[in-house]
Write a structure and sequence with these properties.
By secondary structure, the chain is α+β, with helices and mostly antiparallel strands. The chain has helices at about 5-10, 15-25; strands spanning about 1-5, 25-30, 35-40. The protein has one domain. It is built from two helices and three strands; from the N terminus they run E-H-H-E-E. The chain has a three-stranded mixed β-sheet with strand order 1-2-3. The relative contact order is 0.13. The mean pLDDT is about 90.
Length: about 80
């Protein structure tokens, strides 16, 4: 876990945010050597409707062809 003084954190706040987001490593902010705050990465929320099942299933076989052969469809026999 990385530590930094409050003054340094104040000067580099945005770069520290990007660092925590990229590395997922918490950063402790100290004031005169005493820990006063801890910046941790947010847990990802998978509430987005698009892509929430990514990697959880596998497509096997042909997904475009009808399940029932076309010769068995009553509507096509007319």
């Amino acid at each position: 876990m990385k530590e930094m003084a409050a003054g340094e954190f104040k000067a580099r706040c945005l770069s520290v945010l990007k660092y925590v987001e990229a590395t997922r490593e918490p950063v402790v902010v100290t004031n005169r050597g005493k820990a006063v705050a801890k910046m941790v990465p947010m847990e990802t929320d998978n509430s987005d409707i698009f892509g929430f099942m990514a990697g959880r299933m596998k497509i096997v076989g042909d997904i475009e062809s009808p399940v029932v052969p076309l010769k068995d469809w009553k509507i096509l026999k007319k």
